Amino acid sequence: MTAIPIMWLRQVKRYLRSKARIVGSLGQPLLFLVALGFGFGPIYEKAGGGNYLEFLAPGVIAMSILFTSMFSGIEVIWDRRFGFLKETLVAPVSRISIMIGRTLGGATVAIMQGVIITLISFALGFRIHSFWALPIALLFMLLVALMFTALGTAIASRLEDMQAFPLIMNLLIMPIFFLSGSLFPVTNLPRALDIVIRLNPLSYGVDGL
User: Fold this and answer.
1) Of 22-26, 85-89, 182-186, where does mean pLDDT reach its minimum?
2) What distance in Å separates the CA atoms of residue 199 and residue 130, rounded to the nearest whole number?
3) Does 166 score more than 60 pLDDT?
4) Per-residue pLDDT averaged across 117-122, rounded?
5) Exposed e or buried b for every residue in 3-35, given b needs 16+ CB within 10 A?
6) Quick one: DSSP state of residue 94?
7) 42, 66, 64: which is closest to 52 by C-alpha?
8) How confident is the model at residue 1 (pLDDT cuts 50, 70, 90)?
9) Distance between CA 151 and CA 43 in Å, rounded?
10) pTM
11) What are the strands, taking DSSP E only, across the chain?
């Protein structure tokens, strides 16, 4: 069982040591919050939708967790290319323990990313209406992070080409993100899209946040 905390700690340390990675991963969510939040905010309010930033922020937080979780799988391909994965697999530990440790580590990094975006959202004017919303939000962050980190790791374990991984991730992530209700209300959509949204696990994460 020691493999699980070791793999978890390795994932977290790699994230914390890379300041460029931390700063770079904030760019896209911050752009969405500022450009869309303040750009579409007046239009949303005139249409009677209320404060658009309060609608948008949970979706952007979920987006940040989604992207970070799924793309954490590329480290599996990276470790395979440089021999670390082979050394790990020949160690006297189960492969399930390695998978769990990697998944927990990637999920922790994704949650840290989500917390940072949450704090930025507060600084931009996002507000919560109940203290209990915070622990509930953290619970949904954890569920979303675990689900998509496991998915990203599983996909990466089947791939050899590092260049193919981001292409496949984008092919999966974009529909999941845009059809989750992160950027716009999903009511009164065509029935076909409504069915897809109901099958989209991220949409439930956005609702929970």
Assistant:
1) 85-89
2) 29
3) yes
4) 88
5) bbebbbebbbeebeeeeeeeeebeeebbebbee
6) -
7) 42
8) low
9) 37
10) 0.84
11) none
Q: Contact 173/66 with Cβ under 8 angstroms?
A: yes
The model's pLDDT over 167-189, given as tens digits with 9 standing for 90+, comes to: 888 888 888 888 887 777 777 77
CA distances from 117 to 37, 92, 140, 149, 153 (A): 14, 39, 15, 18, 23
Q: CA–CA separation, 85 vs 95, rounded Å?
A: 11
**Pick from 9-13, 42-46, 103-107: least confident:** 42-46
Burial of 85 (0-12, 13-18, 19+ CB in 10 A): middle
Reported for 123-129, long-range contacts at CB under 8 A and 24+ positions apart, including other chains, are 124/33, 124/34, 124/37, 124/53, 124/57, 125/53, 126/53, 126/54, 126/57, 127/54
Instruction: Give dist(CA 104, CA 4) in Å, integer.
Output: 8
108 — phi, psi (to 5°)?
A: -60, -45
Q: What is the pLDDT of residue 111?
A: 92
Q: What is the torsion angle, in degrees rounded to the nearest 10, for the CA atoms of residue 52, residue 53, residue 55 and residue 59?
A: 130
The two structure tokens encoding residue 131: 């203290």
Amino acid identity for residue 25 in this structure: S
